[in-house]
UniProtKB/TrEMBL annotation:
It comes from Brevundimonas staleyi. The gene is ruvX. Residues 17-117 form the YqgF/RNase H-like domain. It comes from the Bacteria. InterPro entries: RNaseH-like_sf, YqgF, YqgF/RNaseH-like_dom, YqgF/RNaseH-like_dom_sf. It is found in: Cytoplasm. Could be a nuclease involved in processing of the 5'-end of pre-16S rRNA. The keyword Transmembrane does not apply. This is Putative pre-16S rRNA nuclease. Keywords: Cytoplasm, Hydrolase, Nuclease, Ribosome biogenesis.
């Protein structure tokens, strides 16, 4: 299944099913999920990167357990809109997932998501550096997924 535009993802997914958001870091994968109405994203889990096959198995187990119908993967686009090596790595991750199992995937521009989450965790929650380390990637995944959910909902209200 090809990568979808975020506005085409709802049509590819059964109604009343949740989506999963991923923040693909160098050492971890932040995972978030939406509710079945696709209104609210919540941080879920942090997967430590090791071997791709193990990461994929973990993601597929989470997807099956929660009946996830779509993935929104954060795409780290450069500030000038170009895609660098990290964005290409995210695209390769999606292609590799597809080789294991068909998945409805859309990318979401994640520019500044981690820094926005860091600011929130510091300014609003006053979390120490040590406590932030375990929360940032999961929360960034929720930030990415929430942005995509809001965009889809905003588009639907204009139609």
């Amino acid at each position: 299944m090809p990568v979808l535009d975020i506005l085409d993802l709802p049509a590819a997914c059964p109604p009343d099913t949740a989506w999963m958001g991923l923040d693909l870091g160098e050492q971890t994968i932040g995972v978030a999920v939406s509710d079945t109405t696709r209104m609210i994203a919540s941080p879920l889990e942090l997967i430590r990167k090791s071997k791709f096959t193990l990461e994929a198995q973990t993601l597929f187990k989470l997807m099956d357990a929660r009946k996830i119908s779509g993935l929104v993967i954060g795409l780290p686009v450069n500030m000038d809109g170009t895609e660098g090596p990290r964005a290409q790595s995210c695209r390769a991750f999606a292609r590799n997932l597809e080789r294991h199992r068909p998945v409805n995937v859309a990318f979401w521009d994640e520019r500044l998501s981690t820094s926005a989450v860091e600011r929130f965790l510091i300014d609003e929650l006053d979390l120490s550096r040590k406590r932030r380390a375990g929360v940032v990637d999961r929360t960034a995944a929720a930030w990415i997924l929430q942005g995509a959910l809001d965009r889809v909902r905003d588009q639907a209200s204009w139609v």
